[in-house]
Design goal:
Order of helices and strands: EHEHHEEE
Radius of gyration: 18 Å
Catalytic activity: a nitrile + 2 H2O = a carboxylate + NH4(+)
Number of domains: 1
Number of strands: 5
Shape: elongated
Strand order of the largest sheet: 1-2-3
Enzyme class: hydrolase
CATH superfamily: Carbon-nitrogen hydrolase
CATH topology: Nitrilase/N-carbamoyl-D-aminoacid amidohydrolase
Largest sheet: 3 strands, parallel
GO molecular function, one term: acyltransferase activity
Protein name: nitrilase
Keywords: Acyltransferase, Hydrolase, Transferase
CATH class: Alpha Beta
Number of helices: 3
């Protein structure tokens, strides 16, 4: 829809989240996301934006342990397994909880997360 020069464009109120996430704890991450969505909506926001990889966060040392000694074992498989388990699946109950929260609060959500698509991971 084009606006005449005399019309004022619509205002969009945006909440940008800058907070500590919940490393490798999917239920806690979903709960924290839910609370932020509700708070932003209660303050009249139309959109809430979360950081890249908000769920499950991204530990920079995941691919080389012990950090920062990069000559050690290249991968901590236990940590990678936990990372995968804490990543969201698109059709999961956790994702549906976030969707329902956004819908019931009438707010758009830009959520950065690690998507587990039957084990391959994607930045979504």
């Amino acid at each position: 829809m084009a606006f005449e020069q005399t019309q004022t464009p619509p205002t969009v109120r945006v909440a940008a989240i800058q907070a500590e996430g919940c490393y490798f704890d999917l239920p806690a991450a979903v709960e924290k996301t839910y609370r932020f969505i509700e708070e932003a909506a209660s303050k009249g926001c139309d959109l809430i934006a979360f950081p890249e990889l908000w769920i499950p966060m991204y530990p920079g040392w995941i691919w080389c342990v012990p950090y920062p000694l990069r000559t050690a074992t290249p991968v901590d498989f236990n940590m990678v397994t936990e990372y995968m388990k804490s990543s969201l699946r698109r059709d999961s109950p956790e994702t549906n909880t976030i969707r329902q929260c956004a819908s019931s609060n009438n707010i758009a959500v830009a959520l950065g997360y690690s998507e587990n698509d039957n084990h391959p991971l994607y930045l979504s």
